[in-house]
Amino acid sequence: MTNPFEFEEYSLTYDDKPHEECGIIGIYHVKDAAQHASLGLHALQHRGQESAGIVSADQGVLHIHRGMGLVSSVFGKGEGKNMPGNSAIGHVRYSTAGGSTIANAQPLMGYYSEGQVALAHNGNLYHGPMLRDRLIHSGALLQTTSDSEFFLHLLAQKQARTDEEIASVFEQAEAAFSVVLLFPNKMVAARDPWGYRPLVLGRMGDGFVVASETCAFDQIGATFEREVEPGEMITFTAGGYRSTYFGDRTVRQQRCLLELIYFSRPDSNVFGHTPHVFRRQTGHVLAKEKPADVDIVVAIPDSGLSAAMGYAEELGIMVDRGLIRNHYIGRSFIAPGQGARVAAVRMKHNVVKDVVKGKRVCLVDDSLIRGTTTAALGKELRDAGATEVHLRIACPPVKFPCHFGVDFPHHEELLAYQHTVEEIRSILNMDSLGYLSLEGMRSCLGDEALQYCTGCWSGEYLNTK
User: What's the pTM?
Assistant: First the structure.
């Protein structure tokens, strides 16, 4: 049996977690829009940590500032304050394979027959490679390796100006996307007809805000109004906003369930749910399906905390802080060799020995992708005196890659694709291993269960025509 942890190097960027592509924000008709956009991006930082950028509109001209790194690095010297205009869009991005370059940092900006335009995109176009080949064969000169550039090229080819012409661009893109466009005199936001990626609408004084999550609204004092509907394009102008609908809006919604399981901030409103409440409920169901005879429950911080709380509540067992996460390490650290890999895990998490010593411990996490960090944590807990270490995962085994905006590895790199649950338990050296069932996870959604994409667990993708 091949051990998936025998790699030449260990990267904290390529850890046990799936990674989202990005987060977006758009602000229209609000004083100091770029400054507010930079604050909103701070709230969305968890969605992308490779690059950050903002484009503002002032007196018919677009201004751009973007760079590699965290929002605090790119806008740490008050760059947002120096960008003029009462409209702005912003973007944070997570790296994908081969894509960590300033050319791929967003927003993207260009010129076409109607003037300047800037774009911020969250998601991944399923037909991206085909669209890219089509553009190249049509003579387009591409500046990035990102499928987000497709929107700008199609705008230019269509010389899109009216709402209907711009909506036709989104119709051709299919999925998955939430997008915000900024023109010198208007802003446009759109969400694909399947609704894979979240996008919410809010008000700020006399102006409007759209963002990937409501936590950005809380940061800047905006008021949440509603979700941007799947298949809806909203055009913001000096007179307010108007909606245009595109695509087949009768298709079954395919909201990304990983948004609720892992990606979104616990305090946001996403798809009508509070992620913390949903995750705690998955913990309750997990405890009913896969109980463990243990003394304490320990969350793998921070994302496993909500599910761990529900798991412990259901079993009437104490949940305690047996692991502490270090929030201040860099995300590009790479350490060669086994000894350095162990040191890397210790940099990221540390065991509270007095909490786990002499205890039967149940570790709870929201997801398990490669298992590298989880295996190391199990060993650290035993070294600290835990007599047993059990593992519970508050979602089903992740066996399939995502085509719609999540930076999953190829299926060969997914631990559950290669191994049975018992094999994974043995590889991770756990006393027991239990996953939440697909049915149990769906039960936490009630009547909405079939409106969510579960492709990474089931391998069933509805929008792959």
Answer: 0.89
Amino acid at 228: V
> Between the CA of residue 135 and those of 98, 112, 147, 153, 157, what are the distances in Å?
20, 16, 11, 8, 10
DSSP annotation of 443 reads H
The predicted-structure confidence for 36-76, as pLDDT tens digits, reads as follows: 999 999 999 999 989 999 999 999 999 999 999 999 999 98
> Which is higher by pLDDT, 20 or 273?
273
The Cα–Cα gap between 12 and 341 comes to 9
**Which residues make beta-bridge pairs with 318?**
296
CA separation for the pair 416, 410 (Å, rounded): 12
CA-to-CA distance for 407 and 300, rounded, in angstroms?
A: 21
CA separation for the pair 463, 459 (Å, rounded): 12
- Cis peptide bond upstream of 107, omega within 30: yes
E strand or H helix at 360: strand 360-365
Under 8 Å between Cβ of 197 and 178: yes
Residues assigned a catalytic role = 22
Query: Maximum Cα–Cα distance for the chain, whole Å?
Result: 71
Closest by Cα among 201, 253, 256 to 231: 253
How many angstroms separate the CA atoms of 275 and 259, rounded?
Answer: 8
CA distances 355 to 103, 219, 350, 352, 366, Å, are: 47, 35, 12, 6, 22
- DSSP SS3 for 308: helix
Least confident of 19-28, 91-100, 204-213: 91-100
Q: Is 133 exposed, middle or buried (0-12, 13-18, 19+ CB in 10 A)?
A: exposed
DSSP code, position 147: T
Give the burial class of 2: count Cβ atoms within 10 A of its Cβ; 0-12 exposed, 13-18 middle, 19 or more buried: exposed
Contact 260, 270 (CB under 8 A): yes
